[in-house]
Design brief:
Blueprint: H1 4-40, H2 49-61, H3 70-89, H4 94-111, H5 118-128, H6 134-154
Helix pairs in contact: 1-2, 1-6, 2-5, 2-6, 3-4, 3-5, 3-6, 4-5
């Protein structure tokens, strides 16, 4: 009998052999997209890049997932930014503010069917870094739109890698 680890390792190797070109292409596309977002963001707002990095992973590693859809990517980040902005202006202790911003962002995303997990990170990043400027809003939304456009335009060439 073959041990379970050996079986899963073999299937991983087989999958990689079959899709290796897509692994390289889609990983490179994710890196290029993030490079552009990093160039636009100021150095003091770099923590927001983590949410965009997670979005790039979803869009390029699992392009057919619900959370990779344009509606979810753009709508989710919009909800994340709005939730973060609300709590930016509400003076609460951090131990209440951080969990509440996640609670509100997740609630609105699932209630309105805009599920995009990295957008919860956007909400938290806005509050933690006390970021409320228009350039952050524009950058995050432009990044979300750019990643969604890449996914849409390249959809025939992208494969689910996970």
């Amino acid at each position: 009998m073959v041990p379970p680890d050996a079986k899963s390792h073999a299937s991983i190797c087989d999958k990689f052999k079959k899709l290796w070109k897509y692994y390289i292409l889609q990983s490179s596309l994710a890196g290029i997209a993030l490079f552009i977002v990093v160039l636009v963001l100021d150095r003091d707002k770099m923590v927001l890049i983590s949410a965009m990095g997670a979005t790039a992973f979803i869009v390029f590693a699992m392009p057919t997932a619900v959370s990779a859809r344009t509606r979810n990517v753009v709508g989710g980040h919009l909800i994340g930014l709005a939730s973060g902005a609300i709590f930016y202006f509400v003076p609460l202790p951090y131990f209440l503010e951080y969990p509440l911003v996640i609670t509100i962002a997740v609630f609105i995303m699932v209630a309105l069917d805009f599920e995009h997990p990295p957008a919860a990170g956007t909400a938290l990043a806005v509050v933690i870094n006390e970021v409320s400027s228009l350039d952050v809003f524009v950058t995050i939304m432009a990044g979300a739109v750019m990643l969604s456009l890449c996914r849409h335009n390249l959809r025939r060439h992208l494969r689910d890698l996970i």
